Every structure is written in C-alpha cells, then in structure tokens.
Amino acid sequence: MPAHSSTKLAAPRRLLAAFNCRRYPSFRSAFVTVAPSRAPSRLDLFSRHLAPKPPFLELNTPFSTERSARLVDDQGNIIKPRSPPEPKATPKTAIEAEPPAKMSNQAPHPALLIPGPIEFDDAVLQSMSHYSESHVGQPFVNTFSEVLTNLRKLFLSTDPAAQPFVISGSGTLGWDQVAANLAEPGDQVLVLHTGYFADSFADCFETYGVKATQLKAPIGDRPQLDEIEAALKENKYKIMTVTHVDTSTGVLSEIKALSELVHRVSPETLVVVDGVCSVGSEEIRFDEWKLDVVLTASQKGIGCPAGLSILMVSGRAIERFKARKTRPTSYFGSWKNWLPIMQNYEARKASYFATPSPQLIHALDTALKNILARPVDQYWAAHTATSQKVKKAVADFGLKQLASKPENQANGMTAIYLPEGIAPPDVIPSLLKKGVIFAGGLHKEIASKYIRFGHMGVSVTDPNRPDITKAIEALKESLTEVGYKA
User: Fold this and answer.
1) Neighbour tally for 241: CB within 10 Å
2) Which fold does the domain 122-371 belong to in CATH?
3) Within the chain, how many helices (H) and strands (E) appear?
4) Closest of 328, 257, 326, 302 to residue 164, by C-alpha
5) 48 contacts 20 by C-beta, under 8 angstroms
6) Which of the four, 130, 287, 339, 377, has the lowest number of CB atoms within 10 Å?
7) Which parts of the sequence belong to the Aminotransferase class V domain (predicted)?
8) What fold, for 62-121+376-481?
9) Exposed (0-12), middle (13-18) or buried (19+): which is 265, by Cβ within 10 Å?
10) Common-topology check for domains 62-121+376-481 and 122-371
C-alpha cells in the first residue's frame, strides 16, 4: 500500500480503537498488546470486534443445560468420549446384523425414546395431513368440540364448572397461564421442587411479579408430606404447584395425598399440577382428587406432535380468576380472552380470538380417540407394566436410578445413572447406531452422570412395535462396548 494511503487510514484506526476500548473493555488489552512496529490491520480490528462475548443472561433452558453440563465433570474438566476397544473378529449380533424391524408405515428412523416428544401412531400423523379448512367453519368447530369433550374423559372430570383449554403453544405456556391468570403481583406461591422444571416454574412466577418459595428435596427424592404441611402452616400461599413427573430426574410425586393435605391444612390454596411428563402415562383423577389445574402438552403421553398447550381447570380456579383485582398480566395467555372461546368451541359454536392449528387439533382428536378406545385405566396399566420391565432390566445391568425409592419412580420414563467413568457421550452415539435415541442428563448438578429413557405412548401400547425390547438390548450392548461388565 502507498505511504500516503497508510497515513490516511491512521486516524480512522485510532478512532475505531478508542471506540472499541470504551465499549468493550476486553478489547483494550487485546489492542495494546500489538507490537509497536506493526499497527493492527482492519481485518484484525473487525475480527476482535466480532469475537464471541458472554451472553447478557445465562440461558436457563433444557437444551443449553443438556448440551453443555453433561460434558463437564465435577471439577469443570471437559469429558471426552471414551474410545471403544478394538472390535474382535466375531459375528455381529442380531441387533446389528439384521435390518431394523418396520415399526410403522413411516419412513425408517431410529426409535425416539426420550421423555418427549415420543413416537407417533400412523393414524395421528395421517390426520396431520388434513386439507386446509377454516378455523371457524362448522366441521372444524365440531372436531374441536370433540377434543374438549374427550379431554374431560382423559382427566376423568364430569364437573360442568370445570373447563379444558387447548391453545397453540408448548407445555411452558401452561406455566404462563397459571402465573398470569391465577396469581397477581405480590402474591405468594409454594413450588415443590423435584428437579429442573420446578426452578423454571418458579422463575415464571417471578417474571409476573409473584413471589415463589421453593421447597426442595435431595436429587432423586421429593418433599415429604410433613415438610409440606409445615410450610403451608407457616405462610399463606395462593397456589401450591407440584411437578407430577419431573423430566429431568424421573421423580414421581404423589398427587392424591398432596391434594388431600392442602385441602385439610390450607383449603384456600389452589392445587396446580405440572403434568407435562405425566398425563397419559400416570394416573390422574381430576375431580376425585380435587385438583384445580393440570397443565400438559401434546407431545408426550398423549402421543400427538408438539405444538399444543393443554389444561384442565376446575370451577374453583375459574371463579378465583374471575375475582382477581387486576387484569391478567399476559395478553395471549389471558383467560379473559380464551375462556369464552373454549366454552363456545365445546358448545359447537364458532368463535375467534387467535388462530388455532386445525391440523394439530385433528392430530389431537385422533390421539385422544386412540387412548379412549379402552378404559383409561388400561392405558395407565400398560405404562406401569412397561416401566417395571425397564426398571428390572436396569437393575439386572447393575445400574441405579436417580429415583432410588420405588414410590418415587415414574411410569413414563427412567433416569439411569451410568457406571463410574462412563458419560452420556460414551453411549448415546452407540445407541443411535443401533436405532435407538435416548436423552442425556438434564439436571445441572449431575448431568454428566446419567441418561434418560422415555417409554410412553405407542411404543408402549402397540404390541407390534419392538421399541422397548430393542432399547433394552441396545443399552446393554452399548455399555459392554465401552468396557462395562454387569
């Protein structure tokens, strides 16, 4: 470059450096270390300017936790996947040599056995291909009405004052609806903690100006009834929430006994159940157990693609909502907007606030009809039987569960501690090669020590699908390949 060109660029360089030094303190040290004999090039400056910086707020999501924490040990060292031993010249096992059994009419794919989303029945996916139709046309309104009626049957609710809700969104939208509609800024709520998702529910309440107090238990356990009773007597809580099955730990909470306790000790407190990972796979008797809200999502035990937030709300909770002194602190999630819509749809009357997804509603309609083709008790029983089969296999392998007590163990998933010295990256890729997908650990404190096996829906209830047996065999083989001997 000619000398005069270099002179012309000197001033802009100094200005850009000064600007970056003020705006990005870390840039100052990088800039001043350049040798005085060579001014930094424009490329150097832009490279430093675009260098990744820590996020403004740490992500509090299952995705970020699962993808990062599981690769770090207790001392913060990165865990590298173990190299499997050199393969011996032996014939391949049946699970490796034979092509995977055809699970359905869907394209060949690994069996998705995580705690949601789960495998879907062919009929559910086919119903997603329904032609486009008006969301206020009578045929769609009739379908939506059947969905709401069948949700009452799934939750075993015949109380006409209660109301099911189906809104486009995920299970997380259920938290927002509870926090925005049933609590007001300054209210106090009690959150029972059995894993990651209690932290998130509490954070949701705080976002809406509601004070959340968490009652925590050791990892793999749940708060005990005497502890909960003492907490309820110590303070007046507008709401008590409980995660029926925490997806991060596989811990099951005892809903019936909890509700009886609340109604005896603090009858004004609403009982809210996070059933995202339990509805369909666990027993829930909404009216009999006097629950106020059970919130869930479409993609787990119900067996429908993700995209729908589903709630069952008691008449008592709706009256509490109507008596609130302030407006709901959400617009999209406000029951002021949604309650008349749900009531009209159930009465087969066209109504509108925000556009639902007709295709997802058709899929949910099919999924619910599949579940209710038998008594719902039988659907639960199938999950219980499969859970016992999985947990026996885990014990036979010499492995332990996060939920060590049988009464704490969920029927729709199993969280499994890996052997000492083996981490999720050592086995999950091997499982995938064998046609099975498990999830890594999610609890921040122990994420590098365990994996999660989801067993819900059609993988459990369809006798022609080999998903569960195949997964058990694949887990045993994958552990053997990295040197573990049961």
Assistant:
1) 28
2) Aspartate Aminotransferase; domain 2 (3.40.640)
3) 18, 14
4) 302
5) yes
6) 377
7) 122-443
8) Aspartate Aminotransferase, domain 1 (3.90.1150)
9) middle
10) no
